[in-house]
Structure formats: structure tokens, C-alpha cells
Design goal:
Number of strands: 7
Distance between the termini: 73 Å
Number of helices: 5
Oligomer: single chain
Number of domains: 1
């Protein structure tokens, strides 16, 4: 009886640790918005160049909260350095950001509410929708989107500092394979943004996750934006009926 009881407890713990999807979203990676190449150490990468900035996704379907995003282009940021973006359409889970797992094999546990809060505050304060779309982008837009990606990875891969002034994208402050640092980016801007966090408003963010492909950080569209998109669709349908 004692062995049976222990087994049940372990199984229950594993199930409880899984993120509960709030919807699904069918997406495919189609290219990049404003972005650049950073040289990265940490999170499973040792001095390689990676694309930092907007990952453009093509959204074609969804369920639950996945229906909040209109079909078409969707701008996102990578939250999993060692995974590749999907080359064909896959049904990703939409999960609350704090429940998204940190990159497999490195941190293991969910991102957690404190890191999720920093990421959502970073998005609300410094994300620029002009980074989303197709080129051309200005050099400043590319540089800022790149710095934003560095700040995202700093939050995800580093241990939480005692206060926000402990963030530094130029220094790996975590032992072992964990941690993050980068060069070939506007690291001063990334650090200034990180040091400003802690008391600001937060964007309504989610994680898009799929085991085996890169996970993404996205913002849920504002209700007013969704309503306007809906009105646009209705207007288009009316025109077709009149025709």
C-alpha cells in the first residue's frame, strides 16, 4: 500500500506541472521583421550567431484564445534559443506565460510569475509594433528589436537577480549551462530597458508552445483592435453580398 501511494503522488505531481493550454493556434514561421544577428553564449549556445528580433508567423486557424489573433501575419519573439522555428504549419498550444516551461534541458520548471511579469512589463514599455512586418526597416528599428530580444533572453535564461540592476546582457551571471550573455548588439539599450523594470504596467502576453519547435512570446490583441478587425471582416462580407 505504501509503494502504491507514493506512485500516485509522483504521477499527480508530474501532471500538475504541465501547462494548461487556453487554446491552440496554427502557425508557420515565414521570416523576420526588424531584427539582426547577435553572438550568444548560454542557453545551449556557445558563441554562435542567432537572429534576434521579430519572428514573423503566419496564423491560419485557432481554438479558444487562439481565435483572438486574426488570421495572417503575427509578430513574436523567440523564447527558446536552441529550437528551430516551424518550417510548416503546426498546431501550437497557447499557454499563460508564467506556465510556459523554460527551455527544455536547461531550466526545466515553468517560467513563473516573476519572470513572466518582467517580460510583460518589458513588452508594454518598449515593444514597437513598427518592428512587425516585412522590410525595409531602419537601422534603429533593427537595432532596437535586436536589443529587445537580448533582454527577453536575459530574463528567461538568467537566475533572478536581487534587484533589476543585476540584469546585464554582457555578463553570464548564472553557473553551468544556464545563463545568457551576448555581443554584436546594442547591449546598453537592452540593459537600460531591463534596469527600468519593476513597477510599470504589463502587456497581456502569452506563450505559444510546441514540443520540438521553437516557442514564442506574443501579445494578445487589445479588445478594441479585435473589434475593429471584426468590423473590417463584416464590411468585407457585406460588400461581397452586394456584389
Amino acid at each position: 500500500m505504501r509503494t502504491f501511494f507514493i506512485t500516485i503522488v509522483l504521477v499527480t505531481t508530474c501532471v500538475a506541472a504541465r501547462a494548461v493550454p487556453v487554446g491552440t493556434i496554427d502557425i508557420n514561421h515565414t521570416g523576420y521583421g526588424a531584427s539582426g544577428l547577435l553572438r550568444v553564449w548560454g542557453g545551449g549556445i556557445d558563441g554562435s550567431y542567432v537572429t534576434g528580433g521579430i519572428y514573423m508567423l503566419d496564423k491560419t486557424d485557432g481554438t479558444g484564445e487562439g481565435t483572438l489573433w486574426p488570421n495572417g501575419p503575427l509578430g513574436s519573439f523567440c523564447i527558446e534559443l536552441t529550437e528551430s522555428p516551424p518550417k510548416t504549419t503546426f498546431p501550437y498550444d497557447v499557454v499563460m506565460l508564467e506556465e510556459a516551461h523554460n527551455p527544455t534541458g536547461f531550466l526545466g520548471e515553468p517560467i513563473g510569475s516573476q519572470k513572466a511579469g518582467y517580460l510583460s512589463e518589458l513588452w508594454d514599455a518598449f515593444f514597437d509594433p513598427k518592428w512587425v512586418g516585412t522590410s525595409p526597416f531602419t537601422s534603429q528599428q533593427n537595432s532596437d528589436a535586436e536589443a529587445f530580444a537580448a533582454a527577453v533572453w536575459e530574463i528567461i535564461y538568467e537566475d533572478l537577480p536581487a534587484d533589476v540592476n543585476g540584469w546585464d546582457v554582457t555578463v553570464d551571471g548564472t553557473t553551468g549551462d544556464l545563463g545568457f550573455r551576448c555581443t554584436s548588439a546594442d547591449t546598453a539599450t537592452a540593459n537600460q530597458w531591463l534596469w527600468s523594470l519593476g513597477n510599470g504596467s504589463k502587456a497581456n502576453t502569452r506563450a505559444l508552445v510546441y514540443d520540438g519547435w521553437q516557442d514564442f512570446l506574443v501579445e494578445v490583441p487589445e479588445p478594441a483592435t479585435i473589434a475593429l478587425l471584426g468590423l473590417g471582416v463584416l464590411s468585407l462580407l457585406r460588400r461581397k453580398r452586394r456584389a
